[in-house]
Amino acid sequence: MILILGGTGEARALASRVTAVSSLAGRVREPRLPAGQVRVGGFGGVDGLAQWLRDNDIHAVVDATHPFAARITANAFEACQRVGVPLLVLRRPGFTPRPGWTRVDSVADAAAALPGERVFLTTGRQDLAEFAGCPQWFLARMVEPPEPPMPQRIEVLLARGPFTVEDELALMREHRIDVLVTKDSGGAMTSAKLDAAERLGLPVVVVRRPPLPPVEAVATVDEAVSWLGTAGA
Ligand code: NAP
Fold it and tell me: Fewer beta carbons below 10 Å: N end or C end of the chain?
């Protein structure tokens, strides 16, 4: 059996093309479910994942998690090495840098270098705490409601993309946004906000991706399907 570590559109696309069990972390109450078998929840670190791979007779793992889900990616690398199971990372390419972007290494660095007063924050619920001490006003968009700590001056917008450029333009204008903060998630589904910011001439702070472990990586679902063919899974 193949294990797909999921939580992304690419993971769902892959699950619709191969026979596999998909794993979701369980962060979202009503997730978009992939085709086929699905399991939900953490494995219990590297040890738990390694044991799960053995117990479920897994022959190959595709880590198609979000580019910022660094913990599960590191765990998958270690567990697959330990158990001797081939691992592939499926990661969509990052955004192509544009003029007016400031690129930073972490969400904390983004919080420390905000070139504006009315911030459109799209880094997600888990990173909100990094902005707790910031005096700026935030429009923070996320899928699930956040928990404190968070900035004092904030409006939370619960929404799940994809969004159109027109949606994003209207939102940024309505809230008089003067800076956008985003992770370098990549992908066409999440780039409308960047187009809108560019059209409005707004500065954009982009958080760079965490590094990958030394593992084979591909950028497309087609490549992952072929790899699974050659991995004999
Ligand atoms: P993370 O920090 O890398 O992982 C934290 C822990 O969550 C892992 O140690 C693991 O628990 C569990 N986990 C994460 N992904 C899992 C999966 N696919 N299946 C089973 N357990 C998983 O991950 P995260 O940043 O919290 O992201 C969680 C999920 O949301 C991922 O599946 C990711 O693809 C998706 N997501 C993340 C972002 C983001 O910005 N980080 C954005 C969109 C979607 P155990 O150690 O107990 O195994």
Answer: N
Closest protein CA for atom 8 of ligand 1: 72
Q: Identify the pLDDT of residue 230.
A: 86
Structure tokens belonging to residue 143: 């899928």
Same domain assignment for residues 178 and 217: no
* Chain mean pLDDT for the chain: 96
pTM above 0.85, yes or no: yes
Is the same domain home to 36 and 84?
yes
Longest dimension (CA), the chain: 54
Residue 193 near residue 91, CB atoms below 8 Å? no
Residue 23, domain CATH: 3.40.50.720
pLDDT of 232 over the 80 cut? no
pLDDT at 168 over 80: yes
Using the mean position of ligand 1's atoms as its centre, give its distance from the Cα of residue 196 in Å. 29
Residue 169's pLDDT is 98
- My answer on whether 108 and 144 are in the same domain is yes
Rounded to the nearest angstrom, the distance between the alpha carbon of 69 and the centre of ligand 1 is 5
For residue 124, give the ligand 1 atom closest to its CA: 40
Q: Is 124 in the same domain as 88?
A: no
